[in-house]
Amino acid sequence: MGVIGLDKIKTLQRNPANIRNLCILAHVDHGKTTLADCLVANNGIISSRLAGKLRYLDSREDEQVRGITMKSSAISLHYSTGNQEYLLNLIDSPGHVDFSSEVSTAVRLCDGAIVVVDAVEGVCPQTQAVLRQAWLENVRPVLVINKMDRLIMELKLTALEAYTHLQKILGQVNAVTGTLFTSKVLEERAEKVKEEVNRDKDPSGDQVYDWSAGLEDADDSHLYFSPDQGNVVFASAIDGWGFSIQHFAHIYSQRMGIRTEVLLKTLWGDFYLDTKIQRIMKGAQTKGKKPLFVQLVLDNIWSLYDAVVTRRDKQKVEKVMTSLGIKVMTRDLRHSDPKVLLFAICNQWLPVSKAVLSMVCEKLPSPLEMAAEKVEKLMSVRTRRFDSLPERTQELKTAFLQCSSEINAPVIIFVSKMFAVDTKTLPQKRQRPLNQEEIAQRREVARQRHAEKLAAESLERATQSGSAPGEATMTSLPLKPEEEEEQKEVFIAFARIYSGTVKKGQRVLVLGPKYDPAQGLSLLPEGCSASDCIQEVPHLSCCTVENLYLLMGRELEELEEIPAGNVMGIGGLEDCVLKTATLSASPACSPFTPLYFEAAPIVRVAVEPKHPSEMPKLVSGMRLLNQADPCAEVLIQETGEHVLVTAGEVHLQRCLDDLRERFAKIEISVSKPIIPFRETVVRPPKVDMVNEELGKQQKVAVIHQVKKELPQGRSSDYQHVDPDGLVTLTTPNRLATVCVRAIPLPQEVTVLLERNSELIRALELMNSSLREGRAMDINLRILEAIAELKDHLQSLLQERKWRNAVERIWAFGPRRYGPNILLNSIKDYSRPSVWQCLEWRHSNDQVRAPASPLRDFDNSIVSGFQLATLSGPMCEEPLMGVCFSVERWDVESVPFSQNSDTLKEDSVSPEALRDVSSHGNSVDATTERKMDASSVDCYGPVSGQLIAAMKEACRYAFQAQPQRLMAAMYTCEIMATAEVLGRVYGVLGKREGRVLHEEMKEGTDMFIITAVLPVAESFGFADEIRKRTSGLASPQLVFSHWEVISSDPYWVPTTEEEYLHFGEKADSVNQALKYMNAVRRRKGLFVEEKIVEHAEKQRTLGKNK
Ligand SMILES: Nc1nc2c(ncn2[C@@H]2O[C@H](COP(=O)(O)OP(=O)(O)OP(=O)(O)O)[C@@H](O)[C@H]2O)c(=O)[nH]1
Ligand SMILES: [Mg+2]
């Protein structure tokens, strides 16, 4: 527990003005955990000698072994300065991109953040990501430029060079902040303009667009990092020193007699000291003078390093120590490693913990200063605006802002993740020192036992002649079986309380993410509490807070109650909270917005137990793993496989280790990573692989192939493929015919659809509720976004063949929101468009299109399309970027019993279901069918057949076009020195990677390479790069986009030259074919390949044979 007791912390918890909830954020390996160590050591929890070496907050074994943080963990620290005492709830977060979800869980609970940047590497991809995350959650950051020692010892920069370098780094960090700020202002501005336009819809009024966009008046100076603002600390966590310019300003103002305020403004910047007139002047750079920062600050540090580490000049060291008034222990002075002495001196001279902690207390907001904007953001889920929430919900905003822990303040808690701990580490199970009374009690018991034992022995001696020892002996020695307590995991919620005081044993409501406070308030009686029956309200449940904990890194301390404004652990929620939850005592509270995750999980593997009998253990283990990790997903595929989806290779490894050692405790076997692909069609290529002009013949060949693949036994009059790719298919009972063509969507459209999938899903939801006539609360903002999407689509689909296409969109797929389009190109068939919700405001009746007989089967066509897009013909992977245009569709009249199941929307009489198109041959089909009415029965309902026919038609139409596979791509940024650059390129090339650009990092000899790489080739990539470059380059892979693989998997050489180039089957070089076959093999589909082509004995043919 360190030097401060639990009681002290309890009192501090009651004073929110002096609480700071903060997290440490940075790119991987920039020194977060090392810095946290220094802060922890300041509290006496670990020895200051071990600070930076222990990495106390990396409590897992694999974290220590690998040297990276994997889980965010919290610790409460005490800091006192002047007459103020502060409680700091500090959360250390991981920097590796695979664990960025842990960062999200940490940032959500905080008001402030320490952003750490490596002084050599500067701003890296994850630095940008965490700054963005902090921005999105309205968390105020302060900056620590760490590893300053590397500038001296590794880069061997002079103090002046280091100053220029630091300026550049500050510039980079501020550039990121600037971009975030500008985009926010522009967004707000756009919204305002829209509102104004909506308000005064005066057509005659001339609109003058104001191009200033509000950027000029927006004050953003407080957002930027600048040493003179006091929000930057320069540090070397490993050597234990750090300072802000305030520290030096105070020292020099006393020494030089210059006012502190003046020094504060001039210590950082283009100022110098004119020694003659003893004044600070501007323009150090132009006059070739040393800036103040170099002269007064950096030079001192540089000369200390020079004396202690480089020259080991004992006399000079002693001189410095006496001038600074520092005393070190003799053993440090004599230590063979000069770094030990350096640490001892620096830690006293410029203690990093003091610099960082005082900056934190001064610059970061307390829970009382929470911005109203942040509260509104937290409380309004995406589809709703804060002002559309019920009044009682809006009133809770004041509770957030007041952060009151009074009895009548409503309890509001957010759980950002669940984490598993071993039961043994719980404070209840821990052995604690006994107090006097207990010791006396135990002594008494022991004395009694001893007396009984003696009595029994004497009794035994007395009755030695063989009589039974008697019952008494038996009862007096109760052999208690040692309680074999199984090692078990319990879940603790990582949470923060925003209002009220939570007590042990209290009942609270658990609000699910879909809970609607308006609905809850209307269903529940006025003034009901969490202990009442709340069963009838959807997405609302109730639970008891069983335990409350103070999070102390590796340890937990039990508490009876926790007041508002604190970060804490809650026990006993594992049955009602999966990963995140909002807990409240009031049903008026709305659930918090979901966490914002930077990286989506993409690496999937199938797992199974080594021994099949252990399946139940695996299932329960996977369930626990799912709960314990904010980002891992666990699912069971249709094939029955148990699949684990993780964010990357390192994350996967950690999840598997957890599964093996903690949650399932069984041997498991893991499949190779399942790599996702997408299938698409492209425009027919003009030239083939060997740059030969392509004629018509290839297309014909493709169609030929389609025909060949048709299942046996189906006569070709059921289906027909035109040379230009139009597929006509008739259902087996000949009642319905569809004509479909597949067209590749322009790439920008696919990207747009992919990016807006959530919006399309909302669109579908609205449409379905409109169709069913359900009343729903439509958010105007979403409607606007949909209208914008529509306009955007329209602007992208300008070509002649896409004329009017946007209006004719029938559905999106797969799953109704995927990046494929079903287009209605049927001449006489009109149906409500997918954009019907946009017109909903104007007229309620318009949405109903004139009843048409085809409308009854509308759903079947959509379902067929959904099925076709869910798994394509190449390797049963989902389609992407394909438009299926239905050009003709006939349904003929059927007996009532056949289609009664399809009459869902309008009750149309069976007679109405007749052919609507005037197509000739359908008449023949009808007569034919009538002749053989009994044979119809064997085919089942028309709607079902239509689904199958539509699906097949789409598949054939797809195959009639040039098909391509799409691969998921990672982007990565690799930092490497010039010597290893060649090897990095080598590895990238071998793995089909492509370098996008390469630049030199200013002021260092490092190159930054940005490259893309297929996910399929990425396994072991990071390791290989690290090995080949002896650990100098270490890439981080982030999913970026889908890319079409240019080679055609079905390509076969036809000319003599091509045979020579590619061999007879061209399968040795065909990357797409390789991927496709790998997927087919995994799925147990037929793979066309021959292992032995010509089974002849190899021999040398002589001339005479
Ligand atoms: N030279 C130097 N090395 C440092 C300094 N601070 C940390 N390191 C080293 O940098 C490495 C990474 O430090 P960590 O504290 O684990 O970094 P981290 O940011 O917590 O890393 P993740 O949690 O994995 O993202 C360790 O080997 C530290 O010894 C410093 O000030 N100077
Ligand atoms: Mg760490």
TrEMBL record:
Decide whether keyword Transferase is in the record: no
Tell me which GO cellular component terms the UniProt record holds.
cytosol; ribonucleoprotein complex
Per UniProt, the keywords (alphabetical) are: GTP-binding, Hydrolase, Nucleotide-binding, Ribosome biogenesis
Q: Region (Disordered) spans which residues? A: 455-482, 900-928
Q: Does the keyword Hydrolase apply?
A: yes
Domain Tr-type G span(s) in chain numbering: 17-273
GO BP annotations listed: cytosolic ribosome assembly
Q: Where is the composition biased (Basic and acidic residues)?
A: 902-917
Entries under InterPro entries matching the protein? EFG_II, EFG_III/V, EFG_V-like, EFL1, P-loop_NTPase, Ribosomal_Su5_D2-typ_SF, Ribsml_uS5_D2-typ_fold_subgr, Small_GTP-bd
Gene Ontology MF annotations: GTP binding; GTPase activity; ribosome binding
- One of this protein's Pfam families, by short name? EFL1
* CDD domains per the UniProt record, alphabetical: aeEF2_snRNP_like_IV, eEF2_snRNP_like_C, EF2, EF2_II, EF2_snRNP_III
Under the heading PANTHER family, the entry gives: ELONGATION FACTOR-LIKE GTPASE 1, TRANSLATION ELONGATION FACTOR-RELATED
Question: What name does UniProt use for this protein?
Answer: Elongation factor-like 1
